[in-house]
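[Meeting: bench + compute handoff]

Bench side (C.D.) handed over the final construct sequence. Compute side (W.E.) agreed to return the predicted structure before the next meeting so the bench team could plan truncations. Sequence as handed over:
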Amino acid sequence: MQFIKGVCFGVLQIKPIELDQYSISDIWDAYLGYWNIEKLKKREEWEMARWIGYLSNGNWKKGTKVKDLGTFEWEKASGMKGTGGNAWTKAEIDELKKTHPMFKNGRK
């Protein structure tokens, strides 16, 4: 319970009087959304640092790319569905809509 209160009051900035208006599912979704945004911010900062490193050194050989300085974890092919070169097909999405509980409950 302490963790949930910490997330609600600290991270999500929910007022104590508003806490009973949210379900655990709502709080968890908001928490995941918050951390996904934080990860994207960090990713942007790392990519900007790589660009600055690339641009500040004018002695690169012709044809050198920014990614030649290093590849981040999110740029590597993970093989996970929906990432990089492993996109969802229309048939897979339709099948998922038929079988996944999230779509069965009317959410889209």
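W.E. noted at the follow-up: The chain has one domain: 2-56+81-104. C.D. will use this when planning the next construct.
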